[in-house]
Each structure stands twice: as structure tokens, then as C-alpha cells.
Write a structure and sequence with these properties.
The chain has about 350 residues and is of the alpha/beta class. It has eleven helices and twelve strands. Strands 7-8-9-6-5-4-3-2-1-10-11-12 form a twelve-stranded mixed β-sheet. The structure holds S-adenosylmethionine and iron/sulfur cluster.
């Protein structure tokens, strides 16, 4: 059995936001005051998450990523990871984190069955990191990455969102990390989602521009990884690490989409950029059968859009979008949807 949408994409990847809370306040993701938190009773319990995943696994879901908010701030995460890993069919368990608490948890999560981590890191300069995250200490993240490596959570993926006027001048420095580490350094296009009014076409840097800067260091050759997902990977000659580009706005993003999201408050969200959601909570909290959960998962395939409506052509032209254009301005905070 499989989950297949109306555009023949097979969905085998579930991205689950387990909390909307975060220990940082990245300026492009949240306002300084944070986002009004969900009430605890709104957030799915671990047993509810496990129940959905058990059904999803019977429908061909093989890969789980836990995200948030900051997933490492949720209590007993190790229990959830260990329980998810025991579900028949789940082959790959990963986590997206800001890395602040990773040093503390890397080993126990690896022992519980976590396969990999993606660490979000937008600047290598302590002052700038503090400014971008509104108070984060980069030394904690770097220790977290080291601990993850030691715990065998490989490959380490570093996600960087280049933003003009903020950290755009560090693109080359990040790319150079792949010359002497086996990290996967991935550049993610800045998306018009998250902190209201922070996104602007002036701050946006397209993948083409990022890649041109990286290529100043040396030529890149394409790399085919086992599961590329939405990223396109390249490598410098004989470099141990690889460089990925995730072009949410400009290129080939939606055609390869193999994922479905569950928000922290238990909504199935077939597309990051679409407000269409299917509430799982009534089924999970009532006396519904597993068949009802399966029906909702299948329903999400019916409503999964072919692609987002944000300009997909080369770059973004400000005038076109200044009026609101096709940008989904009313999107929920990224911390609640699960980035
Ligand atoms: N707190 C964890 C972290 O930062 O890795 C997980 C949640 S965070 C919302 C997941 C990812 O979303 C991060 O890599 C972050 O950089 C990214 N993100 C948030 N807002 C974004 C935006 N407007 N454009 C692109 N990426 C964004
Ligand atoms: Fe928190 Fe991640 Fe958003 Fe930064 S990007 S505020 S770490 S959820």
C-alpha cells in the first residue's frame, strides 16, 4: 500500500512538528516576543503521534523527521524516538534542530535509534549568530555538532538560509566547510514565511546567485545521493563534504515533493505553502478506528496541490509581489507548521 497523490508523487516521508516552542527567536522565523504558544492540550501527545505514524507506516511512510519549534526542548524526546524507531516499516529517523541542546542529547538519541540530524546554522560569527537568533550562543551549537558526530549521527547536515544584508557574505565560508569536513552544507532559499514583514525581495538570494558565489571557490560536480529529496547536491573536486541547494522558490522543488507534514497541533498539512489542513485530533482523541486515520491520510493526498503559487521563474521581482501578489501572507508561523 502506498500514499500517492493526484500528481503521481509517492509520499513516504512524514515531517512532524512536536512542539511550537523554541529556545531561540531567529529574526526571520519569529518576532522578538515569540509566537503566542499553543496550549499544551492542543499539542499532540507522544501516544497520538505514535498512533498516526503506525497507520502511516502501513501506507508506505518510511522516513520520519521530527522538527518544531525546537524539538529538543520537548521532554522525553528519547522515548518518542525509540518508540518511533520500533514501528515496522520506519527506516529512517531524523531531527531538525538549532543545536543548542544537542550536546546534551546527541548520544542518548543516537542510542534510541535516531539516524541523523540537520543543524540549522546561519552564521559562523558569534556576534552575528547572537544577533540573528536573538541571543543564541554559537559555541553551544558547535559543541552539539561535535557531539552528534561522535554519536555517529551522520552525515551531519548544516542548513543555512542566506539573507542579503545579514549573512549573505558568509556563503563562501560555509561552502568551504565541505573542503575539510564530510558535512552536507545546504543552502536553503529564504522563503516568505515566518516573521511577518521580515521577508523582502531585497533580502532574498536565489539559488543561482548562491551557487555562483560558491563556484568562485572552484568548479562543482553534481553528486547523486541515495535520497536527494528537494535538494540538488554538488561537490568540489575530491572534497569530503557536499553542498546542497534547496530552491524552495526558484527551481524544481514541488515536482519531487515526497512529504506530508503534521503540525504541532495535529493538522495534516500536505503543502508547506498551502493553508489547507486536515485535523487529525478529533479522530485521535475520539473513539475513531485506525481506518478513520487512514482515510484522513488518504484525503490529504487528494488535496495536496501540484505546487505552490509563489513565483517559480528566475528570482523574484519585487513589484510583482509588493501588492501581496501570490504570496501566502497569512501562513501560520513556521515553528508551528514545522520547518
Ligand atoms: N528549531 C529547529 C531549527 O531551527 O532547525 C527546527 C524548526 S525550524 C522552523 C526549521 C528550519 O526552518 C530551520 O532550518 C530554519 O532556518 C528554517 N526556516 C525558518 N523560517 C524560514 C524561512 N522564512 N525561509 C527559509 N527557511 C526558514
Ligand atoms: Fe526556533 Fe528554529 Fe525558528 Fe530559529 S528557526 S526561531 S531555532 S524554530
Amino acid at each position: 500500500m502506498e500514499l500517492r497523490d493526484n500528481f503521481h508523487r509517492v509520499i513516504d516521508y512524514l515531517r512532524i512538528s512536536i512542539t511550537d516552542r523554541c529556545n531561540l527567536r531567529c529574526i526571520y522565523c519569529m518576532p522578538a516576543s515569540g509566537v503566542r504558544p499553543l496550549e499544551h492540550k492542543e499539542i499532540l501527545t507522544y501516544e497520538e503521534v505514535l498512533r498516526v505514524v503506525r497507520v502511516a507506516a502501513t501506507l508506505g511512510v518510511r522516513k520520519i523527521r521530527l522538527t518544531g519549534g525546537e524539538p529538543l526542548t520537548r521532554k522525553n524526546l528519547t522515548y518518542l524516538v525509540a518508540s518511533l524507531k520500533k514501528i515496522a516499516g520506519i527506516e529512517d529517523m531524523s531531527l531538525t534542530t538549532n543545536g543548542i541542546l544537542l550536546e546534551k542529547y546527541a548520544r542518548e538519541l543516537a542510542d534510541a535509534g535516531l539516524d541523523r540530524v540537520n543543524v540549522s546554522l546561519d552564521s559562523l560569527r558569534p556576534d552575528r549568530f547572537r544577533e540573528m537568533t536573538r541571543g543564541g550562543e554559537i559555541s553551544a551549537v558547535l559543541r552539539g555538532i561535535e557531539a552528534a558526530e561522535k554519536a555517529g549521527l551522520m552525515p551531519i547536515k548544516i542548513n543555512m538560509v542566506p539573507i542579503r544584508g545579514l549573512n549573505g557574505d558568509e556563503i563562501e565560508e560555509f561552502a568551504r566547510m565541505t573542503l575539510d569536513t564530510a558535512y552536507h552544507v545546504r543552502f536553503i532559499e529564504f522563503m516568505p514565511i515566518g516573521a511577518k514583514d521580515f521577508w523582502s525581495d531585497k533580502r532574498y538570494i536565489s539559488t543561482n546567485e548562491t551557487k555562483a558565489l560558491v563556484e568562485k571557490i572552484g568548479p562543482l560536480s553534481p553528486v547523486r545521493l541515495r535520497r536527494n529529496g528537494p535538494a540538488r547536491y554538488f561537490r568540489f573536486d575530491s572534497a569530503p563534504g557536499v553542498i546542497g541547494f534547496i530552491s524552495a522558490l526558484t527551481h524544481h522543488f514541488c515536482g519531487d515533493c515526497n512529504r506530508l507534514r503534521i503540525t504541532a497541533d495535529g493538522k495534516l498539512r500536505p503543502c508547506l505553502f498551502s493553508e489547507t489542513e486536515i485535523d487529525l485530533k478529533p479522530a485521535l482523541r475520539g473513539s475513531s478506528s485506525e481506518e478513520e486515520i487512514e482515510r484522513l491520510l488518504r484525503l490529504s493526498m487528494e488535496v495536496k496541490p501540484e505546487g505552490h503559487t509563489i513565483n517559480r521563474s528566475e528570482g523574484i521581482r519585487g513589484e510583482e509581489h509588493a501588492s501581496g501578489g501570490s504570496f501566502p501572507r497569512a501562513l501560520k508561523p513556521m515553528s508551528r507548521i514545522g520547518g
